[in-house]
Amino acid sequence: MQRSISSTKNVYSNLLHYQKPPTAAMITRQQPPCDVFINHRGIDTKKNVAGLLYNHLTRLRLRPFLDSKNMKPGDKLFNKIDTAISGCKVGVAVFSPRYCQSYFCLHELARIMEAKKKVIPVFCDVKPSELMIKDNWRCPKHELDRFQSALEEAKYTVGITFDSSDGDWPGFLMTATEAILENLIEVEEEEQHQKLI
């Protein structure tokens, strides 16, 4: 991740100083897959829980994916997100009081569950029992069923509860990071085991 940030800075520096168009090599360079996909409702948690977690994981030299940090204008929304989900090792689903009002959140959650990724639910200012889907989008029944199934699976997965009014942000980041690292190690051990079989 550090290398791609430096490369990006060099690209911008070249563009500003020399005003040369970027070369095809600069444009087609692929980012490595992410380690952790952070699923969240942006309006609720992007500037606090999800954003802080992304920054913290980045400082630890992990490769988290957060849409506002990893996507740029012109990216195809579902393609980029689906690729990140397919390539990630662990998903973190940050549930907030209005999470279920977002079609995109539920789509991402369903993709994470269908890809059989390890998922760490973070219940931020909401209890699992309060999470319910209302069809505000007039989705086909099969899609609502996908969303409901994914949500139920997440609600019955051991997660982290966080009350933002408590304000113990360092405690939350430590607990979440430990859970993420434990799950990453477990996934990598399973991958190594599968290679030996």
Automatic annotation (TrEMBL):
GO biological process: signal transduction
InterPro entries: TIR_dom (IPR000157), Toll_tir_struct_dom_sf (IPR035897)
Occurrences of domain TIR (ranges): 32-155
Classification via PANTHER family: COP1-INTERACTING PROTEIN-RELATED (PTHR31008), TMV RESISTANCE PROTEIN N-LIKE (PTHR31008:SF42)
The name this protein goes by in its record: TIR domain-containing protein
Organism in which the protein naturally occurs: Lactuca saligna (Willowleaf lettuce)
